[in-house]
Amino acid sequence: MVFFPPGENGFRSLYEYLYSYRESVNITYSGLENLISENAFYMMKKIKDELSSDEIFQKKVNFISQCLLNNNSLFIKFINAKKYCSSYKKTILPGVKEGISGSALWGYNIGINKNLKKENRNNIKQILSYLCSKDTHRKITIEKKLLTPISSLYEEEEVCKNVDCKLFKSIQPILRPTSEDNNNYYFNFLNYFYEYLFQKRTLNDTIKGILDLTKIYYISIGTKENNAGLIITLLISFILMFISVSFFYLLNKNFLENFIFIPIDFWILSMLGSILILLVCFLDMGKYTVLKCHLKVFIFSVAFSLETIPLLYKLIENFPIKITFFTYINKNHHYFLLFFIIFDILFNLLKTKLLLD
């Protein structure tokens, strides 16, 4: 009989079951993607279909608790229960291989107000010292039969007279993952699992759906996930090559009469701005970092200036009214562009400093 109720308890039960399907005792997992096993899901469905039923798998906590008090069950997967029939023997969860097991840990959190007055902080320290002390844990373990993280207590004779130290020492714990909305995450996780067990969702769709709850996808040149990154790279590379070839037209005297709208150097800078905007697309590939984000904004601002300032210069040059300042810009268009480039650099440096502070 297996215990997979909706909510946190069901998620914890499923998570420790998945952990028991790792290849070796010494293997630990840093992410859910490495933990999920197709064989684990397949075996649970096989147990349900061949040894149990949909009805039993969907029973509530009360039904499982009643089963613990009688001897009508062969195996029961449940939490560390205090009351159960003497016919049962409490053991760790058997894993895919001998010696491998899994137990999802849970406990209590203590919240402390960070705005406490100084005179109250010492009192809080004393309370925490008491709650975390070895004597307190020894008392709780003996009286409440609860698991303690202080492993040395399981070597004491007094403790072992009251609890099964050999069992507790053999536990292979794992912390359940957390998210910004745990309840919603647990619900969706189990919902995918239920749809695989009781409905017709395929195993691959189930695993992908569970992983997608927390997985962040990145665009990459590789084709492991999809071909989008490769297609985008090839397209951008083609456009960059086309723009690069266009530079030769600016350097060829036979085509200069076609580029009299703005000075040649402004044409070159405008094309350079287009190249920078295209290169920013490569910053969107791979994992995002703080440096990438700041660099992307900086390149965009400089590229925008390189593309638009030549057009603004042309508007100033053709302004119908004579203005002294505009006349100065017409004669010193390089200073005009340089002013905006320096402004972009200083603005981005100031913005970055303010964000980091």
Shape: elongated
The proportion of residues in beta strands is under 5%
Number of strands: 2
Which sequence of strands runs across the widest sheet? 1-2
From the N-terminal CA to the C-terminal CA, the straight-line distance is 56 Å
Any descriptors?
357 residues; two-stranded parallel sheet; 2 strands
Spell out the blueprint of helices and strands.
Blueprint: H1 8-19, H2 32-35, H3 38-50, H4 54-57, H5 61-68, E1 103-105, H6 118-131, H7 134-144, H8 157-160, H9 165-169, E2 173-175, H10 182-198, H11 203-212, H12 228-251, H13 264-283, H14 290-317, H15 324-331, H16 333-356
Parallel strand pairs: 1-2
Description:
The protein has 357 residues and is an all-alpha fold. Helix content is 58%, strand content 2%. The protein is built from 16 helices and two strands. Strands 1-2 form a two-stranded parallel sheet. Helix 1 packs across helix 10, helix 14 runs antiparallel to helix 16 and helix 15 crosses helix 16. The longest helix is centred in the last third of the chain and has 28 residues. The two termini are 56 Å apart. The mean pLDDT is 82.
State the gist of this model.
The chain is an all-alpha fold and about 350 residues long. The chain contains 16 helices and 2 strands.
